[in-house]
Model the fold of this input.
Amino acid sequence: MAIEAAAGGQSAFDQLVQEARPKRTVAQNLKRFARRKPAGAISAVVLILLALIALFAPVIATHDPIRDQVAAERLEAPSASHIMGTDNLGRDVFSRVIYGARISLQVGFLAIGLGTVVGMVIGVLSGYLGGKLDLVVQRVVDVLMGFPFIILAMLLVVALGASLLNVGLALSVAIVPRVVRLSRSSTLSVKEEVYVLAAVTIGVSLLRMVLRHILPNTLGPVFVLATGALGGVIVAEAGLAFLGLGIPPPSPSWGGMLNIGARGYMEAAPWMVIFPGIALSAVVFTFALLGDALRDVLDPRLRRGDS
Done:
């Protein structure tokens, strides 16, 4: 019975403490998070609004970002008909910024989602099984970590070709080594816990061990890393588009818009750079704030003493 209790992940004392502690609802947890981390809560609200804007871009946009090209209105300053002005082809900048949010979030979530899942699986298995598998995996990770993030993504995009899917895949591969290292280090710590050793003693299968005991206890740090890295992935996608390796035109990518605006329209039409630049900066800043807030909340070393 004692072994089974230990394998469950908690001692009898811990269970009594949890039972005595009042249960919080989801609304109470959100309210507590907003009270403790107001900047993180505001960032979460901003990102939810951004997701809604991207989802309902066809409704919010005032013009078609690709087809509505009016030569007579090219390089028109912000006005009532074009609140962010027009670009060099007479397209509405506001509509292109709105649709650019959709592309940035699609690439960002694809890269982070795929990179996090693959990285966690490899990292957990590498840390738990150890031996030659761990040695080989860590040497491959060392090689990948030797390449700067953006350089590795550029090489993969050149090899795969420029498209939304390929850019997302390239950025996910660049994310994987960081997730592998973090999940491996968390696994090395968790595998020495009493409940894991007890689970091994009673013959728990590898799949159940990973899914039930190891993986849930390594999610926190990886989730924080993924949230913070999402802003960096969006910047990397914009950087690839700025270099001509991102989503091919005429798709409205923020990086592509900055590329066009910086190639000779900075003085004649600065709004072509200002508005997509503001959108990109705001998204990265809010993701950074949210990542810091989640780190402070989920890291037990930083929340000691909190009620």
Remarks:
- Residues 1-20 have pLDDT under 50 and may be disordered.
- Residues 100 and 253 are 5 Å apart (CA to CA).
- DSSP finds 14 helices and no strands in the chain.
- The radius of gyration is 24 Å.
